[in-house]
Specification:
Blueprint: E1 2-4, E2 12-20, H1 25-31, E3 36-40, E4 46-58, H2 63-76, E5 78-81, E6 90-95, E7 113-124, E8 142-150, H3 155-170, E9 183-188, H4 192-208, E10 213-224, H5 230-240, E11 245-249, E12 260-266, E13 269-274, E14 277-288, H6 293-305, H7 307-324, E15 328-333, E16 337-340, E17 344-355, H8 361-368, E18 376-377, H9 379-389, E19 400-405, E20 410-414, E21 418-422, E22 425-434, H10 440-458
Parallel strand pairs: 1-4, 2-5
Antiparallel strand pairs: 2-8, 3-4, 3-11, 4-7, 6-7, 6-19, 7-8, 9-10, 10-18, 10-22, 11-12, 12-21, 13-14, 13-20, 14-17, 15-17, 16-17, 19-20, 21-22
Bound molecules: ligand ISJ.
């Protein structure tokens, strides 16, 4: 495994891919070695990575630039036979929310930025076969890729490894599914009284005029009855949340601690760049799901008419458009609509821009993060309020996770509806946008609703 720095010279990258019969997502992930990678996004190929042929890490305020430079150095050295665009070399990873991320538990093994070039990768070109909305059968295909990076890697060795891996993947069988482990204990970072006090202080700041919106989050630490089986959890999240961005990020296994895993199924895209086309989402404003289609519709209409939620949403949409403007020849926002997920409904405005010149996806991710959907406005005052109020480190929660390629294209999601798992414990994160007329108890309930996607995968039969 090579760890590249920005000054890395004389590295050589070799990547070889072959088409394979479509394997089961769960079986491939079960057989993968740490650090494991999962990426699956609506309309994109799904990926499971096993191990790391190279790892790029960076810290601090210039971590976006540092990763871009290291990625350019890595990709510049490529000897690539990908066979299909979806299997071309890509780096998967993400960033910490704050530039000066702390390293307290559960984030000890997560630097300010970390990207992995998987050692072995399976790519499902039409999404994974167990995602409910995966593409039609005819669009589905799977590829196996073996990568190597180093001063003297040999293409023949990589090809031999590809043959061996192919035999291994083709012999995988999709063994039985493990259900949710069950929750035996839970600890909140934020008691109800502290939450009320935090929201009230934020509301006062907003009313006094030095803040317009701030997103405050909580964390929930749970003990499980058994170790968490991420292949099962991520497979079920794919079925329940086909419109979401599913991810799994793992740091290197550390000698001092058991493996830590950060995973989730988030509805929010931060940005995607292909050529000069940029796509992003303003997603803010939340309500629950109804028991019946009529109740669902009623809740959606009430959300769309609710002044507080519409205000909270519009601040995000306007800011995202403003943040894109310096890069763009044109920006257009679609009509506001509802994104309906299994557990919640959100106000959603899709936004598209055409770039004025070629830009790396990381430049856009840096410009947009954190949007007021997870930070606030103005950004500095919001970040200060978050630091003063939240009694825990956000780590990678609500920060960009995704991929980049050699052309500087990529997709990043905002790491929401997520948790960090380590053996039989997990820490879940969820937040809400606070504006002038926020009610602490209603915001509390909304946080609990946003734990549901992950909590449903941990609790045995709702227990
Ligand atoms: C902060 C979260 O979600 C964000 C906040 C929302 C809101 O306040 O309505 C809605 C979607 C997300 O942009 C979260 O899920 O933790």
């Amino acid at each position: 495994m090579e760890s590249l720095r920005t000054d890395a010279a004389d590295y050589h990258l070799v990547s070889r891919s072959v088409p394979i019969p479509t394997p089961s997502f769960r079986a491939v992930l079960r057989a993968a070695d740490a650090p494991r990678t999962v990426w699956s996004a609506p309309g994109e190929a799904a990926v499971v990575g096993s191990g790391a042929a190279a790892t790029l890490t960076a810290d601090g305020a210039d971590r976006f630039d540092a990763i871009r430079e290291a990625a350019e150095a890595l990709f510049a050295s490529g000897d690539v036979h990908a066979g299909t665009e979806a299997a071309r070399p890509r780096l998967f990873g993400g960033f910490a929310f704050h530039a000066d991320s702390a390293d307290g538990p559960p984030w000890e093994d997560f630097p300010g930025a970390r990207f992995v070039f998987p050692r072995v990768q399976v790519t499902w070109t039409g999404g994974t076969p167990d995602a409910a909305d995966a593409a039609a059968d005819s669009d589905r295909g799977a590829w196996l890729t073996v990568n190597a990076v180093g001063p003297d890697v040999d293409a023949a060795d990589v090809e031999a490894r590809l043959d061996a891996e192919r035999e291994r993947v083709e012999s995988l069988s999709d063994d039985s599914e493990r259900g949710p482990p069950g929750v035996t204990d839970r600890r909140r970072t934020t008691a109800r009284e502290d939450w009320r006090a935090g929201v009230e202080t934020a509301v006062e700041r907003i009313r006094s005029g030095d803040l317009r919106k701030v997103v405050l989050a909580q964390a929930l630490e749970v003990d499980l009855d058994d170790d968490l089986s991420l292949p099962d959890v991520l497979s079920r999240l794919g079925e329940a949340y086909p419109d979401c961005y599913r991810f799994l990020v793992e740091p290197e296994p550390s000698a001092d601690r058991p493996q830590t895993s950060f995973f989730g199924a988030t509805p929010e895209r931060l940005v995607s760049v292909r050529g000069r086309t940029v796509e992003t989402d303003a997603l803010a404003g939340t309500t629950g799901r109804g028991e019946t289609p009529a109740e669902d519709e009623w809740l959606a209409q009430e959300l769309a008419r609710d002044e507080k939620n519409v205000h909270e949403h519009e601040l995000v949409a306007e800011t995202v458009e403003d943040q894109l403007a310096p890069f763009a020849a044109s920006v257009s926002a679609g009509p506001r609509r509802i994104k309906r997920l299994a557990t919640v409904q959100h106000l959603w405005t899709p936004i598209t821009a055409t770039l004025a010149s070629d830009e790396h996806v990381l430049s856009l991710a840096e410009a947009l993060h954190p949007t007021p959907a997870v930070g606030g406005l103005p950004p500095e005052a919001a970040l200060e309020t978050i630091r003063e109020t939240e009694p825990f480190d956000r780590g990678w929660y609500a920060a960009p996770v995704g991929w980049i390629d050699a052309a500087g294209y990529g997709t990043f999601a905002v790491a929401l509806r997520s948790a960090v798992a380590r053996e039989d414990t997990a820490t879940l994160f969820a937040g809400v946008g606070i504006v002038a007329d926020s009610d602490p108890d209603r915001e509390w309930d909304e946080v609990q609703l946003k734990y549901r996607p992950i909590l449903d995968e941990l609790e045995a039969d709702g227990a």
